[in-house]
Amino acid sequence: RWFVGLEVDDAVWDASTFAKNRDRLVDHDVGKALLSAVVRQAQRMNLVSDEHFSVDGTLIQAWASMKSFQPKDCPKPPSAGGGSNAGVDFRGTKRSNDTHESTTDPECRLYKKAKGQESKLAYLGHALMENRSGLAVDGCVTQANGTAERDAAFEMIDVIKTDGPITLGADKGYDAAEFVERLGTARVIPHIAQNTTGRRSAVADRIAKTPAYALSQLARKRIEEIFGWAKEIGGMAQTKFRGRARVDWRFTMTLAAYNLIRLPKLVAT
Q1: How far apart are the C-alpha atoms of 67 and 44, rounded to whole Å?
Q2: Residues 41-69: pLDDT tens digits?
Q3: Residue 150: predicted pLDDT
Q4: What does the pLDDT read at residue 106?
């Protein structure tokens, strides 16, 4: 009451007011605006360059259970037992995003980020990091699919405005011929880890053998610090929101918070 200027005996607003105001934050893209404002502050302090960047994506578990992943046009599987949280027998049934969707959050997708991992209902969070400072300069959330990381990376790097070429560090998952070609068209040098497992890398050896490439490969791993903080401290391991737009707002706000925590340390050095 003191913080918002209410007296002890003043009437307070209905709880639904908080939800309505939150929706306004989502509709007006306040998360992006805050992140951009923090990045501009770092730029004015000469803490962020416009030349060397890294990109990566991370899995954000959706606020939906596997029981909610139901056939789109078919009857639900038989339940075992009663109650509001009855068990469901999925044995012998094949489930995929083409035939099923979550009744709790239809926009999330069944996805696993690597072989051997458990499939989860999830979104993908993406971050673009400036290599020198380790600050997140952009971020977004997309539906989880096989091309989302590369598509999001290109969209984020495309908004970087600079007179000269820039470098982009990334892991082997970004080593795809179409993506590397798109980067070349945009004057972005692909400092992407070469994936030579049973194939030929799309990243030219003349690039991979340069000292700058080696530095990018070292720097790009720091993006995991951003994701680690966002999940452990920022609460993004599993979102509490439903719908891509709300999860995106929460994720970008978390990236802005990470930058604000890191800025004083950069200034001190």
Answers
A1: 49
A2: 999 999 998 899 999 999 999 999 998 99
A3: 95
A4: 96
Tell me, yes or no, if the pTM score tops 0.85: yes
**Is residue 76 a contact partner of residue 143, using CB atoms and an 8 Å limit?**
no
Type of residue found at 114: A
DSSP label of 55: E
Confidence of residue 37 (pLDDT cuts 50, 70, 90): very high
Nearest to 142 by CA among 60, 235, 23: 60
Distance in angstroms (rounded) separating the CA atoms of residues 19 and 239: 16
Q: 103: Cβ–Cβ under 8 A, 6 or more apart, which residues? A: 68, 70
Instruction: Return the closest-CA partner of residue 244 out of 102, 65, 123, 121.
Output: 123
d(CA 55, CA 131): 10
Coil, strand or helix at 238 = strand
In 3D space, the residue among 34, 223, 78, 229 whose CA is nearest the CA of residue 136 turns out to be 223
Find, among 55, 81, 37, the residue nearest to 221 by Cα: 55
Q: What is the mean pLDDT of the chain?
A: 90
d(CA 239, CA 261): 21
Radius of gyration of the chain (CA): 22
Q: What's the pLDDT score for residue 26?
A: 87
User: Between 152 and 164, whose confidence is greater?
Assistant: 152
Residue 21 vs residues 15, 24, 25: alpha-carbon distances, Å: 11, 5, 6
